[in-house]
Amino acid sequence: MDLTEPPGISVEGADFGYPGRPVLRDVDLRVPPGELTALVGLNGCGKSTLLRLVAGLLRPDRGRVLLGGDDLARLGRRAAARRVALLHQSAPAVPGMTVRQLVRQGRYAQRGPLGMLRDGEDAAVRRALADTGVASWADRPVDALSGGERQRVRLAMALAQDTRVLLLDEPTTYLDLRHQLEVLQTVVRLRAERGMTVVMVLHDLGHAARFAERVVALRDGRIVADGAPKEVVTPAFLAEVLDVAGRVGEDPHGGWPVCYPDHPLTAST
Q1: Which residue among 67, 123, 175, 228 has the highest number of C-beta atoms inside a 10 angstrom radius?
Q2: What confidence tens digit (pLDDT) does each residue in 55-101 have?
Q3: What is the widest separation between alpha-carbon atoms in the chain?
Q4: pTM exceeding 0.90
Q5: Sheet holding 70-71, edge to edge
Q6: Which domain holds residue 216?
Q7: Cα(17)–Cα(24) distance, rounded to whole angstroms?
Q8: Do 192 and 103 have their domain in common?
């Protein structure tokens, strides 16, 4: 196992937008090596865009993004993919592709097209299959799996990139509660076992408060709250970040905040 410290992430004064539509405004965010951070906020607040900046898929209009002290703008996409893996919200199904074949796609950044053609399955693929508990399905078609099973396979594909930074964009979307917990518990376990820095976008504030060490909230492209769940998740947080009136209690066993939303504060548009 690699015992070196995983890279930290620094976003410094970052702006990003499209013509006539600013998305992120003057974002400063530092994620220390090995931390598990959750990004939360309303739809359209910039969470996924921020994740794509950190993955090197987008470049800020102003400011910069550093990974382990290196400016991502100076790296190509493939070079960035050798250092940071991003699990997107969704991916199109590939009819007939097996679990093993899909997970192998995660090795492209490390091995390149010739390596993918020349060599078969390597140790990183076998480890990813085993770590996510999908090795027994390796020869099954992906499109024959349930939603929860597919998400674990997609997580295995991200892990096959063999990076020390893992970004997850709404990894529990469309999953039932059992599979949501299964995926999040797997992420927490793998983060500890592999020694990774993890940032994940979550819609469910309850999951963020339970599983993350730190919650960062965005509103209208700006960071409006940042800290340990016990410190930042309050009734005022629910109102300012999520436009919801509600109460916040404490889980009697784990001590993390538990949210009780009562009603929306503004009409949806």
Answers
A1: 67
A2: 999 999 999 999 999 999 898 888 898 899 999 887 666 778 999 99
A3: 58
A4: yes
A5: 21-31, 9-18, 62-67, 70-71
A6: 9-83+163-264
A7: 7
A8: no
